[in-house]
Structures are given as structure tokens and as C-alpha cells.
Write a structure and sequence with these properties.
The chain is an alpha+beta fold. The protein has 3 helices and 2 strands, in the order βαβαα. The N and C termini lie far apart (about 30 Å). The relative contact order is 0.20.
Length: about 70
């Protein structure tokens, strides 16, 4: 309908999600549910809520994989 934000991008674009398996704020099971709802490509990483600080290489690799998948 042309309204910005009317459609969630994850419902029409390829989506990737890094699940932080040790997250005590958003449990991994709930993160996995989010990712499944979005039909996302999922990467699991050991670490807490700030997974980008705990596992920067895993997160960077997931970003690079998303970029490669978009080509």
C-alpha cells in the first residue's frame, strides 16, 4: 500500500539471525522461535546477550554469509 513500515522487512526479504545460546535476557529458545517465524538462516553462538562482543568472529561470519547469500 506504499506506507513505510506497513510490511515488516523480514516477511519479504531474506533474513539471518544469530542466536546467543547463553543469553539470560532473551532465552535461546525464544530467539529460535523468532528466527523460525522469520524463516531466517540461523547461526548459533555460545555467549550472552551481547553476542557481538562475546563472539565477534561468529557474528562477522554470519554477516558475511548474509552478504554472500544476497549476491
Amino acid at each position: 500500500d506504499g506506507v513505510i513500515g506497513a510490511t515488516a522487512a523480514w516477511s519479504v526479504k531474506p533474513t539471518h539471525y544469530v542466536v546467543a545460546d547463553g543469553d539470560q535476557i532473551i532465552p535461546a529458545q525464544l530467539q529460535t522461535h523468532f528466527a523460525t517465524t522469520m524463516t531466517a538462516t540461523v547461526t548459533h553462538a555460545e555467549g550472552g546477550h551481547l553476542i557481538m562482543l562475546a563472539q565477534p568472529r561468529v557474528v562477522a561470519d554470519a554477516i558475511l554469509a548474509a552478504v554472500e547469500a544476497a549476491d
